[in-house]
Design goal:
The chain is an alpha+beta fold and 793 residues long.
């Protein structure tokens, strides 16, 4: 019997090729989208699960009351680790500090490369359960040792054994390779971590023991592994006031409150506001999960619509089979077998589509995903998912078609009736409501990105190049380097700074001013710069002047931004002084706010001092008359000659600034991709429905043509129903989309509005797409010879 069901199902597929193609293609696209989204969600939910201690690891984070608001800081002061070990030893199995995470210069003889790495206490590798390829995890017990990743080992040592070899870190720390670990996976907080040095290396290189207030600077990231019998939530409350009990009266005003953030929440729940977690990436997991369900639902709707729409053509078949003794249950099995056969073919096509499109999808999503061919769970979920899809897609036609009465069908008195079209219209309405909502959402996302991109940044990014400096060589030969660069004709300005203008150098709570509220906790971003910094980056002054080498008093001067003036409520800032660690600094200039952190957030109060030492960044302004490639070719030899211990690496500031939009742009591209596929699936359904309606009304069209109806009139007749449905879907989708996107925009301090033109534009686009889709069948039917359609009457 099953064999017979499949034979009939296959015969029906071959007989109705267009109908079958639309059904299978729609299902395949819908299932491919669902698979891609499923792989993306799996990758997101499995973030950091590389370690066996996943459920027991947490990061110590602090909430501080700062500038009148509660802020959440990821870094903590380094004495906190000792305090936790000393007083809470029963709650923690391991307490591990890390610091200096970022790019460093690793040198092997004359081979110098920049690698991402950092420094970690000796229990760190055990806590993270590093997969050691050579050496052991406890190698960091030796303060002179370093662990390197497999990729780093290959880059420096190729196929030779690196154990016992020495590397030089940042041209000052000599480290002995004591182990090689497997590269961290891409979906990990520690992805691309090329080396791990001992904590003692960082401690000694930065002379931490000479700090006058060790509880003030927050520069370490502190991880803990819970004891086997410890409850994380309970311990989080116990350690809440540890920092508060150890800081001075000034820092106590910030009311620091510690808490534990479980490893399971580092990636998807990393967004805090007013000291409370408000989610993070999890909102996108939910969003794309819902999109995946709806896109698949659209494909199922197509199947149900086209199957029920062709019910009259199969009514006689059902009548005959019932007359010769077929049970209704057998007919239901027949229609379900057709549905499952379609789904099986669609599933194979979906696997092909996913395999072909996965590399492009990975590039857009910034992932390294692959189909889990060897995973039993993948196949169980996929096959179960396909079975469920087949049952859902075939449920309506199976139960609807099998209910026809054979007497009426065979007498010719069976009519589907006008009410039978209502479910199909409702399903089409649902299709376009979902599609229009996705389109509106995508437009709002891209508009928000563009709105932030157009925000004034407070300086000029054009032709601005930043070069990270890890040695003193450029600073010691600053004037000579500057002269050589100017001689090339490629550079018109040069400056030193703590960091490039796209990054925050650090912050300080040691700023005081006249009439400051003694109970107010403050935090100003600070940076040390050379006198030419403002000219090089293009500071825009509201008042006062820039630093100058001509004024010796500028060593005790400061430039502030507008946010600082507003925060300190200075009426005449040019007549004011700031106090920094007891030293008075004259305000000589006020610049427009510079966007350093997120372009979607508020600009923080910032102060700029003259840097007496070397900065970690050199900034160059390229001559606009010289192309970027030519300028770099001329700049490179100068830096290699004066700074031979460091590989020459540079960044264009405008490109670095563009990276701040990376996450939102990826989300926008993915949303646009899925919205396009949703429209494609909906249009396939419309095309099939238009084809059926034209075929169903072919005699009516013939009569109307004979009576003098024009092609335009017939086109309008066949298109009107679809335009009405799309218009209703617009009325339903618009408020839904507005509500969802309005809530999404609330996550940004600096945000665009949702303009009415978005809905008008989307509506016109949806109607245009609908007309283009149905017009082919409508015009084809209108141009057909009426004699052929009427000759059987």
């Amino acid at each position: 019997m099953i064999k017979n069901y499949l034979k009939v199902a296959w015969w029906n597929l071959i007989k109705n090729k267009v109908h079958s193609f639309i059904n299978i293609a729609g299902l395949a696209v819908g299932m491919a989208v669902a698979m891609l989204i499923g792989l993306w969600i799996w990758d997101e939910l499995s973030f950091n699960k590389f370690t066996k201690n996943y459920d027991h690891i947490a990061q110590v984070i602090q909430n501080v009351t700062n500038n009148g608001e509660v802020q959440t800081w990821q870094s903590v002061p380094y004495p906190l680790a000792t305090e936790l070990r000393k007083n809470y030893g029963n709650d923690f199995k391991r307490v591990v500090m890390t610091a200096g995470m970022g790019n460093h210069i690793l040198a092997l003889d004359n081979k110098k490369l920049t690698r991402n790495g950092g420094f970690m206490e000796q229990q760190g590798p055990d806590m993270l359960t590093l997969d050691m390829l050579k050496g052991s995890r406890d190698a960091l017990k030796d303060p002179s040792s370093i662990l390197i990743s497999s990729a780093t080992a290959k880059a420096y040592f190729a196929d030779t054994d690196p154990i016992g070899k020495t590397l030089k870190i940042d041209n000052q720390i000599v480290a002995k390779v004591a182990g090689v670990y497997s590269d961290f996976p891409r979906n990990s907080t520690f992805a691309d971590l090329g080396f791990i040095g001992s904590w003692e290396m960082f401690y000694n290189a930065n002379d931490i023991k000479s700090m006058r207030e060790p509880w003030r600077p927050n520069f370490t990231t502190l991880y803990v592994q819970m004891a086997d019998n410890a409850d994380m939530a309970t311990v989080s409350l116990k350690i809440r006031d540890v920092k508060l009990r150890n800081v001075n009266a000034v820092l106590a005003k910030k009311k620091p409150a510690l808490f534990l953030q479980p490893m399971s929440k580092w990636h998807l729940y990393d967004d805090f506001k007013d000291g409370k977690n408000i989610g993070g990436g999890i909102q996108y997991v939910w969003m794309f999960g819902i999109i995946g369900v709806f896109v698949l639902l659209l494909a199922c709707i197509n199947f149900m619509n086209l199957s029920t729409a062709r019910s009259e053509k199969r009514a006689r078949e059902v009548g005959i089979r019932k007359a010769v003794g077929s049970l209704r249950s057998q007919l239901i099995y027949q229609f379900f077998s057709e549905s499952l056969l379609c789904v099986a073919i669609a599933f194979l096509l979906a696997l092909l589509f996913v395999q072909l499109g996965l590399s492009l999808f990975n590039e857009v999503a910034n992932k390294e995903m692959s189909i889990l061919w060897s995973s039993p769970l993948f196949w169980i979920l996929s096959l179960g998912f396909s079975l469920l899809t087949g049952l859902i897609a075939g449920s309506y036609p199976a139960f609807y078609l099998s209910s026809f009465q054979p007497v009426k069908v065979l007498k010719g008195t069976f009519r589907v009736g006008r009410l039978a079209a209502i479910p199909r219209k409702v399903l089409v309405l649902v299709q376009f409501t979902v599609s229009v909502t996705l389109i509106i959402g995508t437009v709002v996302v891209f508009r928000q990105i563009q709105f932030a991109k157009d925000r004034p940044v407070g300086y000029s990014r054009d032709g601005l190049v930043s070069i990270s400096i890890g040695t003193q060589d450029i600073h010691k030969n600053y004037e000579a380097v500057k002269d050589e660069l100017f001689k090339t004709g490629a550079v018109i300005a040069m400056a030193e700074g703590d960091v490039a203008p796209t990054s925050a150098a650090g912050s300080t709570s040691a700023i005081e001013w006249r009439d400051k509220d003694p109970n107010l906790s403050v935090d100003f971003q600070q940076a040390g710069v050379s006198p030419e910094y403002g000219k090089t980056v293009g500071w825009q002054f509201k008042e006062g002047r820039d630093f100058s080498r001509e004024f010796l008093t500028d060593s005790a001067a400061v430039v502030i931004n507008q946010a600082s003036v507003k925060f300190m409520n200075l009426k005449n800032p040019m007549n004011e002084y700031l106090t920094y660690y007891g030293n008075k600094f004259k305000i000589i200039g006020v610049i427009k706010d510079i966007i350093v952190d997120s372009p979607y957030g508020q600009v923080k109060p910032s102060v700029f001092f003259l840097n007496k030492g070397a900065g970690s960044a050199v900034l160059l302004k390229i001559n606009p008359k010289v192309s970027a490639s030519q300028a770099i070719d001329k700049i490179t030899p100068v830096f290699k000659r004066f700074n031979p211990e460091q590989p020459f690496e540079y960044n264009f500031v405008d490109q670095e600034y563009a990276k701040k939009f990376g996450n939102e742009q990826r989300i926008g591209k993915l949303a646009a991709f899925f919205a396009s596929l949703a429209i494609l699936i909906s249009c396939l359904g419309l095309f099939g429905m238009a084809s059926f309606m034209a075929e169903q009304r072919i005699k009516e069209i013939g009569v109307r043509k004979v009576l003098g109806a024009s092609v335009f009139n017939l086109w309008r007749l066949l298109s009107t129903d679809f335009i009405v449905l799309v218009t209703v879907s617009l009325l339903v989708a618009s408020p839904v989309a507005w509500y969802l996107m309005h809530n999404w925009l609330q996550h940004f301090d600096y945000r665009s509005s949702i303009s009415g033109w978005i809905f008008v534009f989307t509506g016109l686009g949806a109607i245009t797409i609908t007309l283009l889709t149905v017009s082919f069948q409508s015009v084809k039917a209108a141009l057909a010879n009426p004699i052929k359609s009427l000759k059987t009457e």
